[in-house]
Amino acid sequence: MSATGTVASSTINLIKTIVGAGLLAIPYAFRCDGVFFAVSLILMAAFTSGYGLFILAKCSKTLLNPRHSSFFTLCSITYPNLSLLFDFAMFIQCFGVALSYLILIGDLFPALFGGTRTNWILLSAIIIVPLSLLRHFDSLKYTSVIGLLALGYIGLLIIGSYSFGNYPKPKVDWFSISDRSGVLTTFSIIVFAFTGSMNLFSIINELKENSMTNIKKIINNSIVVSSACFIILGLFGYLTFGKETLGNVILNYDADKLSVRFARFNLGLMVVLSFPLLFHPCRISANNMVHWLQLNYGTKSEIDETIGPITLEIEDDTDREYLEQELGSSHDTSFVHTYQSLPRATDDDNDDQVDERTEAVPFPDSRFLTVTFFLLAVLYVLALNVESFALVLALVGATGSTAISFTLPGLFGWKLIGTESLMNGERIGGWDKAHRYGSLALVWYGLIIMVSCVYITLFV
């Protein structure tokens, strides 16, 4: 397959992955937290999430072929016994959000055009199914552009209503917290607003000029643009309605106005076009779990067909002693090795062709179609029969989103960063040492966030 991704197209896809319907809850966070505290939380979430993306990207460069990057391949060489669990966390996170999008479609369109939620959910398949059949993530760049344009109109409505509308100017809390109990409920909204790690590896694998410089540009540009969207639209939404700001700011506007109806239509369109962005990593995780089960419980013929170049081990005891000395004796070094049959891909590797012979996790066409249609069928059946599962989705976000954004990147970084230098006979550089301990801090940060958000979800 061809690597067709560019910095621009990858940035668009990552921004669209991050900025979704959750943006409309940010003004409510400003209402509860006050402007200063809300902006501070957004900047903190932007930094920690961006750093998690950077650590994942840096870990991908420790692979002999960075185009084999995925949570599964990194798990397989660091925590092989937990690969299934880690992919299951990714699967549940993406599956839950994708399901919530289908349910939201059933809530939005009947209010705009009439009809039943069942009919509108089924009609969405006309757009969703073809987009879900696209195999490569970069193919979704055009729908991401449309989704961002739809979001842009909603943003213009929010800013224009404040600037030119006849709304009474409310009291605004610039530095004080107006709703201390609300701060807890909005904390998770902001922390999880920047979740985009589920699609980072697809971006890395499909990027034509697959260098760390380009990957950092994509991450930095996406985080900066997303942060600007959250801060600007959150601020103007709050400045317009003050303490009357609702959890979905669109509901504050007069639903009878044509401009507002069009904004709601754009919201629905954005949700429809966001679904494939979540379905793509969901399907990859499902295939990874099938692959893991075949490797561990399949017949010999199945194992021979599915095994990929992902198991790494040290051949030389001297190498092992050297690595243990540098990484710490308690550090498991069984994952470090060099492939004998494959050339190492360098940071300057601009090859736009991905060698399918060395595909780390095989995904044959027959299984691709089977997994795709099975997952779509399950999602649609659940969406037609479940009208709300807010508590489950909140718990999924608190655990799954935390795991893929903070905990897993930190665990990977702690084990992998610096190993490339050591295998080249060099000592770990100062920045790599800093990023290793930064990774460890990210693990603890993720665990604290997870416990806090689960507690908030269940008891606040």
Automatic annotation (TrEMBL):
Q: Which GO terms describe its molecular function?
A: L-arginine transmembrane transporter activity; L-glutamate transmembrane transporter activity; L-histidine transmembrane transporter activity; L-lysine transmembrane transporter activity; L-serine transmembrane transporter activity; L-tyrosine transmembrane transporter activity
Q: Would the keyword 4Fe-4S turn up in this protein's UniProt record?
A: no
Top-level taxon of origin: Eukaryota
Positions of transmembrane segments: 12-30, 36-57, 84-105, 117-134, 146-164, 184-207, 219-241, 261-279, 366-383, 389-417, 437-458
A Gene Ontology cellular component where this protein is annotated is:
fungal-type vacuole membrane
Q: Which UniProt keywords apply?
A: Membrane, Transmembrane, Transmembrane helix, Vacuole
User: Which InterPro entries has this protein been placed in?
Assistant: AA_transpt_TM
Q: Where in the cell is it found?
A: Vacuole membrane
Q: How does it sit in the membrane?
A: Multi-pass membrane protein
Protein name per the record:
KLLA0E08559p
This protein's species is Kluyveromyces lactis (strain ATCC 8585 / CBS 2359 / DSM 70799 / NBRC 1267 / NRRL Y-1140 / WM37) (Yeast)
- Print the organism lineage: Eukaryota, Fungi, Dikarya, Ascomycota, Saccharomycotina
